[in-house]
Amino acid sequence: DSFGVKSALQKLGVQTENLGTSTGNNWIDSGMEYISSFSPADGELIGKVQVTNRESYDAVVSKAQEAYKTWRNMPAPQRGEIVRQIGNALREVKPELGKLVSYEMGKSYQEGLGEVQEMIDICDFAVGLSRQLYGLTMHSERPGHRMYEQWHPLGIVGIVSAFNFPVAVWSWNSMIAWVCGDVCIWKPSEKAPLSGIACQQITARVFKENGLPEGISSLIVGDYKVGKFMTEDRRVPLISATGSTRMGKIVGQAVAARLGRSLLELGGNNAIIITENADIEIAIRGALFGAVGTAGQRCTSTRRLIIHESIYESIKERLAAAYSKLVIGNPLNEKNHVGPLIDKMAVEMYQKAIEKVKIEGGKEVVAGGVFSGDGYESGCYVKPCIIEAENHFKMVQEETFAPILYIMKYKTLDEAIAMHNGVPQGLSSAIMTLNMREAEAFLSVSGSDCGIANVNIGTSGAEIGGAFGGEKETGGGRESGSDSWKAYMRRQTNTINYSTNLPLAQGIKFDI
Ligand code: UN1
């Protein structure tokens, strides 16, 4: 254990065998079924987690409903104070939690630390927000009347998160939902349940120390079958789900069938347009981290480069040179740039995608492949690759969660933007240019159709202060910063008559 994983697990209270269902730190035994969490870094079993059954799920919901009655009546700034304490608790375990994320999920330790920092940042954001849950006031058309709107919490928020950001995306949802006065039930990814166990214990301690009810924060564990308990449950007014478009369609329809609300953050197919006016150094660096960071497993990963024909060959060469310098290996070893994919199934999908795109006419610029031998025993390490392709290829239209970068060329900016938008997804996007007209055109109404559009930075690595999410098959939801909090609350319009008359709106007369 040269990387200190064992002591990190110990500090975080993660055991080799864990119960998976809890309200606060009240863990409920829910039967015989377990999920085993293996590290893609070395293939070792990290620990087992018990799967939530129907009965324990119902117990969790009852506790959550009960806790909501207390929590919703606590003034929002006081709820913010609790979230401030959670942020501090996260600061205390940043290296350990970053390590667990890195070991369980496979992203580099640096990125694991970055993920925990993202959690700390959203806590700070939520604390400030707790004093800024503003509604508007309106001028009534009737004399002696006042109108305003206020925002109330929804109740239980069900959070379904993905393996690639096993803890940060949960925190975007839960910290905001908590200051809004909601209570949360979280189903972490079944591919990273131990990260969920660790976070649950961190927040539970803070709620307990403050004498608050356990059900403000609950954990359930399992695959889509457990998720279904929530999506079909009318007691859960909002489901916030992050994952594949395939999952989102199922979740969205299940929630819509009961007219519940869903907040979906689904797949991306993010591109960078590199124009002839780009700062090439920045373009290469932005594309490189975007494409290979987190081994291409961010929903914001760069999947396509749309390059002006005049610089296409030189960009191709420089990228290939940069790729040749990448060191792939154990994510906990800081000399490595890129860690493994999440599991062998992901490796298979990566291989199939390369095979298929080659059949369609794709040409390998930097060849892919699977690593084997010393240090690669888990079988999850793959070579980041670059493939010359055309935008309309079936594989290029799909999101493959792996470090495969498709490159293509364009002649005019209009053509580049059309290619850019010519995919079913609409999450993140970027243009590399020092030309003001090109940059503004990309950000204009006829430019990028994505929820995130950047100039001279890559597609990934969004800050928490902005609203995060995207259009089309990305699902339309917005999480994290700006006014995303509104999705976690219900708006109430209030009209108050302080006059001695009862005039009707629209001037309607109704006298008897
Ligand atoms: C995700 O991949 O689901 O913008 C979230 C980024 C990160 C979050 C990604 N801040 O890349």
From TrEMBL:
It is an enzyme of class 1 (oxidoreductase). The active site is at residue 265. Its EC number is 1.2.1.3. InterPro entries: Ald_DH/histidinol_DH, Ald_DH_C, Ald_DH_CS_GLU, Ald_DH_N, Aldehyde_DH_dom, ALDH7A1-like. It holds the Pfam family Aldedh. The keyword NAD applies. One of its GO terms (molecular function) is aldehyde dehydrogenase (NAD+) activity. Residues 27-493 form the Aldehyde dehydrogenase domain. Keywords: NAD, Oxidoreductase. Belongs to the aldehyde dehydrogenase family. Homotetramer. This is aldehyde dehydrogenase (NAD(+)).
